[in-house]
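To whoever is on call:

I kicked off a structure prediction for a single chain this morning and the downstream step that reads the tokens threw a length-mismatch warning. I double-checked the sequence; it's 219 residues and nothing unusual in it as far as I can see. Pasting both halves so you can look.
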Amino acid sequence: MSTEQTALVRKSRGRPKQFDRGTALSKALNLFWRHGYEATSLADLVEATGAKAPTLYAEFGNKEGLFRAAVEHYVKNFYEKGRCLLSRPDLSVEQAIDQYLRAIANLFTDCDTPSGCFMISASSGMSSSSADIAEMLREHHLSQERTLFEYFEKQKQSDNLAAVTDSALLAKYLACTIQGFSVQARDGATAAELNRLIDVVMNLWPELTKNTVQITAAH
């Protein structure tokens, strides 16, 4: 146990009568989201969650364990909601992508959470000592692009997209667009402003799908 951990344990002995894991994870998630992994200390987490240090250690082991749990909490409560839009059979491809992008824009600008993408924000300022955490965040972040790729491939099999559509290129284009939304949100862009950008993307959608076909055919 580190010196900081020992000091915190001595300062806050004992387990609280009630410990809500979900609430603690939400508060820790917001802190990591706002300040990043390395800039968030154990003392910050104790203060933010309202839990005593021994309770956090018993539940999560250490700061890294708490962070990993917070990432899974984010994936379950935020990321999965957006992905569900891509599995609705009642939506066309264009409708599903439209709603998917708008759900992300609303998340990035939600007043109840820090602005932008958690995966991008939390990975800022990572040092070599946090290489495992950085790689874990990278894999989660890339999973969004993979999800879009798999969605487009499935839609091609169902004849909802042209068979020669470049799913990888289209998925990467949207992933880059979403990253841009995160930067804009962190800089203060509102939901209305991001939704106007989505209007532009969707107006271009017929050309985007056509262009990926043309590029694929050219190669």
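Update from on-call: the warning came from a stale cache, not from the record. Cleared it. Sanity check on the structure: The mean pLDDT is 87.
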